[in-house]
Amino acid sequence: MKISEIIKNNKVTVSFEVFPPKEWAKLEDTKAVIKEMVKDNPAFMSVTYGAGGTTSGFTTEIAKEVLQGGVSPLSHLTCFTSTKEKINSVLDELETNGVENILALRGDIPKDYAESPNQHYHHAGELVAEIKARGGFCVGGACYPEIHPESKNRVEDLAHLKEKVDCGLDFLTTQMFFDNEAFYNFREMCAIKEINVPIIAGIMPITNAKQIKRSVELSNCSLPRKFEKIMERFGENPDVMKQAGIIYATEQIIDLMANGVNNIHIYTMNKPDVAHQIMKGLSAIVNEQN
Ligand code: FAD
Questions:
Q1: Which residues sit opposite 102 in a β-bridge?
Q2: Which residue is closest in CA terms to ligand 1's atom 13?
């Protein structure tokens, strides 16, 4: 099913994310993770695309597995280091396998990468326009409540986001954030800029101290004092940190829902137990809303 259909009727939705393995030997392990995750009835499951397309074959395999589990997959696709031929062959493969949703991304620019004069793609908007012109897919894009790290300022970031949405995006999914105020401000600014597609809020449950350091470095997102204090106090104790991270993410989601945010995407990072505990914490709310 298309995500535009899944999220269209103001009901609460909670979706999950899975990343594909880097080698065939690990494929069955990832499939087992999916079998566990679908038990919690996510609205859809996104399947990431390895940096530079390194795991593109696995992304389709995993998307197929999600579909077989009775859940709609959202297949990520990056373009910056790709060619139009490669993109078309991945789209053909996804279409053949019944995948209807794509998260169209530029991808990170590899370190020391030299753009060639024949570079096919520069920004995600080009990929969005191409997929929409081809037809058949529901297309989402990424957005950044605390600004994309390469953008000079908020004005520039929002102007480019508006251009990307106008290329035909059906929805946006946010970068992770730990301070809901950042999301509420961003949502208002999008409304002012007439960025009117649904915005799915991306929540990352931080369950170990190492993960937060890397996540914050990569994403440019700020850490509220409340979260820093949790890290200081519990960061060295993995079991306690895991429980605190799950509760923090659950509370974030409850606050978002209370503020009218209906569509939540959890960066579940192949951790079915984390996904399950968050869903358990939300069960009455999700049932009441739907
Ligand atoms: P764009 O929308 O192209 O934006 C990138 C930068 O270019 C921004 O600073 C923007 O303001 C600027 N820009 C945009 N259009 C123009 C223009 N026309 N002219 C000038 N500047 C412009 N990476 C992966 O490798 N695999 C994944 O599976 C993956 N999944 C992700 C999922 C989500 C929800 C998010 C938020 C990110 C994901 N990423 C993934 C990371 C993403 O690829 C990087 O953040 C990347 O640096 C930007 O991708 P984008 O699609 O947002 O790019």
A1: 75, 139
A2: 160
